[in-house]
Amino acid sequence: MKNTKTALYLKDWEYDLENISILKSLGQVILPSEFELDMKDFIFCPLCYTPITRNPLIKDVTSNGRQATFRHLPTYGDIKCPLSSLSSTGQKYANEEEAKQAIDQGDLVIIHGFLHASERNRNESENNEYHPDIEDIDGPLSSVPISRYKGETFELPSQITTVRGICRNFSKNYYKYYFMLSSNQPTMLCDLIHDIRDVTKENDTPQLY
Ligand SMILES: [Zn+2]
Predict the structure, then answer these.
(1) Do 77 and 101 share a domain, yes or no?
(2) CA gyration radius, the chain
(3) Is the overall model pTM greater than 0.70, yes or no?
(4) How many CB atoms are closer than 10 A to CB 171?
(5) Do 57 and 107 sit in the same domain of this protein?
(6) Of 62, 99, 163, 184, which one has the greatest count of Cβ atoms within 10 A?
(7) Residues around ligand 1, an ion, CB closer than 5 A
(8) Number of domain units in the chain
(9) 47 C-alpha vs ligand 1 centroid, how far in Å?
(10) pLDDT tens-digit profile of 2-44?
């Protein structure tokens, strides 16, 4: 069962599909390192909102040396959650409409490229205006191979963004699917980011850290 890297903590909330908006608006995003024992019965999955647990409950590393994470409970195994299914690393869509809808709802972002400092400066000098807050701009329609059917591509609006644009609202973006034109499938940001502590050798492919 796949682990979750963050949890929503809300004291006294009980799992109830009709009250999810309360958890979403009042729940506090916590990391395994921020967990305290009295939160034990009040931590929930940030995507399916079922109660989850921390593994191990108190220690920072498991008996086989892994960092503590949050984990789904088998009791709620029949509730489908992108974070607990094994196929969660890649997301594919049945048709162009479905993919567009995911973009409109903010669940999927097509990254055309990253906005470099030089381009930001060029934009500024062309307009004679300074836009310190430009973090992402609309990119061109891009052919994106994220269909469930092999060989089919969708024409989808893309974004040109900055790392700062991704970092703003980080906890919200953490479970969005990102598709980079250099990759082959949309991947959740939480699976795209590499922990610098795990880096052992140089890698020629650009990655997020
Ligand atoms: Zn879940």
Answers:
(1) no
(2) 19
(3) no
(4) 13
(5) no
(6) 99
(7) 45, 47-48, 81, 83
(8) 2
(9) 5
(10) 678 899 999 999 999 899 999 999 999 999 999 999 999 999 9
Between the CA of 82 and the centroid of ligand 1 the distance, in Å, is: 7
Neighbours of 19 (CB within 10 A): 12
How close is the Cα of 23 to the center of ligand 1, in Å? 14
DSSP letter (8 states) at residue 52? E
DSSP string, 153-185: -EEEEEEEE-HHHHHTTHHHHTTSEEEETTSSS
Q: Is 52 inside a domain boundary?
A: yes
120 and 157 in a single domain? The answer is: yes
Q: What is the DSSP letter of 66?
A: P
Residue 2 lies in a domain: no
The reply to whether 206 falls in a domain is no
Phi, psi (degrees; rounded to nearest 5) at 76: -105, 25
For residue 41, which of 32, 54, 23 has the smallest C-alpha distance? Answer: 54
